[in-house]
# Entry
Amino acid sequence: MKIFFDSSAFAKRYIEETGSDLVEELCFNATDLALSILCMPEILSAMNRRLREKSISRKEYEIAKSRLLEEIEDIALVNLTPTVIQKSIVLLEKHTLRTLDALHIACATEWQPDLFVSSDQRQIQAAKQSGLSIQLI
# Structure
């Protein structure tokens, strides 16, 4: 199964929280994984925020970052192309979405996954209305 993860869901692979077990299961069972090129900086931003808030230690941050950098080598990264940008504009005009959420959906529709996974309810609804099979984590 081809699975595209939004940053909000894929981050659960590196920071233990509700839904982390399901993300691990989906990753284990996937034949192909894809992320937007934006996913890595978004996840590192979230981990840095947790580090500043002291909800994770420096050691936990370094381990998670190292694991992300290692695993990203085996994951398809979908770039921001003119087609993706145009799709994101259409999404922003049709749905109440943040810019990066629209870009993730646009990247997913470009890659054509069997499943789109996110932790954001609004993004999930827009992805579903865009023809993607969805999984809310």
Remarks:
- The chain has a mean pLDDT of 97.
